[in-house]
Design brief:
31% of the residues lie in helices and 24% in strands. By secondary structure, the protein is α/β, with parallel strands linked by helices. A four-stranded mixed sheet has the order 1-2-4-3, with no helix packed on it. Strands 5-6-7-8 form a four-stranded mixed sheet, with no helix packed on it.
């Protein structure tokens, strides 16, 4: 299975700029999208216009119009679709589905700022993510998305790689025992 994940920062804008055509050209079996920022009808129109209209779609739309939204697209049927996490229904930040024997997740974790209610909400969301991931243990699963986390505050690009790695290590340690992070993988 070739899986491609992309934060499209608005699926309609990505379509206008050729992003969805580029995705099609990569010939993935599964695509996960973050920051879709569209209604189901708007998403389907963009997919139809870019050669992805006949793909299976699981979409978590945000109740805040024009915000967040995640999706899973697959050439083969999707099953066991779950939208949202407990306490975050309508946030448009989590969708999961089985593609064959693999559970695929598309997640969008919003940014936070240390010491603010927004950061507390982010940590609560990550706790919900961790709880859900625990239910997926023992079966093939892949978490994709725009995870927006760093354990430490950073001030510039020079610190980015170091702090993202620290954030990744913290996330793995804190929310699930075993994890594999990758940019491309094949499941045979």
């Amino acid at each position: 299975m070739r899986l491609l994940s992309a934060n499209v920062n608005g699926v309609r804008a990505a379509h206008r700029r050729g992003g969805l055509s580029w995705i099609t050209e990569q010939e993935p079996a599964v695509v996960t999208l973050q920051e879709v920022r569209a209604s189901p009808a708007q998403l389907q129109t963009a997919l139809n216009d870019s050669g992805l209209g006949d793909w299976q779609v699981a979409h978590a739309e945000s109740s805040d119009t024009g915000r967040a939204g995640v999706a899973i697209l697959a050439r083969e049927p999707l099953s066991d679709v779950q939208v949202g996490l407990p306490g975050f229904e309508g946030s448009g930040r989590w969708v999961q589905a089985r593609v064959g024997d693999v559970t695929v997740v598309s997640a969008y974790v919003h940014t936070g700022e240390a010491g603010t209610p927004r950061q507390e909400e982010k940590h609560a969301f990550l706790e919900a993510v961790g709880a859900r991931l625990q239910t997926l243990s023992g079966a093939p699963a892949v978490l994709t998305g725009d995870l927006n986390f760093s354990r430490v505050q950073w001030q510039g690009v020079a610190d980015f790689a170091r702090t993202v790695w620290q954030g990744t290590a913290f996330f793995v340690r804190s929310y699930f025992a075993k994890a594999l992070f990758f940019t491309e993988a094949r499941f045979d």
